[in-house]
Amino acid sequence: MGKTGPKTEAGLQAVSESAKTLDHSSWTENPAAVQAIEVAKRLRQTKHGMYASVPIICKAEACPYAESCELQQMGIAPYSEKCPMEIAAIEDLFRRYCSDMNINPEDPTQQVDAIMVKEVVDIDISMLRCDKKMAISADFIIDQVVSVTDDGEPISRQELHPLTEYKEKLRTQKYKTLNLLNSTRKDKEGSVLNINTDPSERAAEMMQIIESSKAHDEEEKKAREAYFKKIGKSDQQVIEVDPIEDMEE
């Protein structure tokens, strides 16, 4: 089987120099695929690159959310493009969460936090889709067929719309992720000791500790003298001597 991909000199030169210096052999040896990998990596490194696969593709009037889509009602829904409504929601939610939690998504030391924010935004987008579907059906109660009679007549009962249960599961997962994000940030803050003390303040604190120690020693000395005066003895210094060992006869 022949080698796939561009075989001409021009095709080989299409691979970027940066791609040539990287080892993609574990993935592919196809120059076109290597170039595509480089493009994909650049896309992921953009500010919202990690959200690239989240928005649905616009189907215009064929979209399952068309009846509740403002852009479709205005006649400006971009067919076959990523949904502008979801893109706008993703950017807005991501900015709000990062601002509220003081997260810099471009800081390499905060990438775990940024990824967890992405998880929360993913859930928010799923909840948004639930809201749009519920806006179309406009009823939380549905007639669910549970059985049929001997004559083939369906037997149904009223139940909550499945979307309400699905949204509740999403909400629970969102709260768990937020709690995990909050605890992770607290652990990170607790593992770092920040000392921002001015040298003069530190020296003053040390002098205060020394003076306090001297005052404590002085009070202890006065208390000892008062005790010996009360019992009628002088405060004589104890002389330590070695014990006398028994001499062998």
Q: Care to describe what's here?
A:
The protein is mainly alpha-helical and 249 residues long. It has a domain at 84-188. The protein contains eight helices and two strands, in the order H-H-H-H-H-H-E-E-H-H. The chain has helices at 9-13, 17-21, 31-44, 70-74, 84-101, 111-137, 162-190, 199-230; strands at residues 141-148, 154-160. A two-stranded antiparallel ribbon has the order 1-2. Helix 5 crosses helix 6 and helix 6 packs antiparallel against helix 7 (162-190). It starts with 8 loop residues before the first helix and ends in a 19-residue tail after the last helix. The model is unreliable at 1-7 and 15-20 (pLDDT under 50). Residues 1-27 are annotated as: Disordered. Residues 15-27 have a biased composition (Polar residues).
- Average pLDDT: 76
Helix content: 40-55%
Q: Low-confidence spans: pLDDT under 50, at least 5 residues?
A: 1-7, 15-20
Q: For the largest sheet, list the strands in their spatial order.
A: 1-2
Q: Which structural class best describes the helix and strand composition?
A: mainly alpha
Distance between the termini: 107 Å
| General shape | elongated
Counting DSSP H or I runs of 4 or more residues, the number of helices is 8
Using only C-alpha atoms, the radius of gyration works out to 37 Å
Helix-strand sequence = HHHHHHEEHH
Q: How many beta-strand elements?
A: 2
Strand content: 5-15%
Let me know the largest β-sheet.
Answer: 2 strands, antiparallel
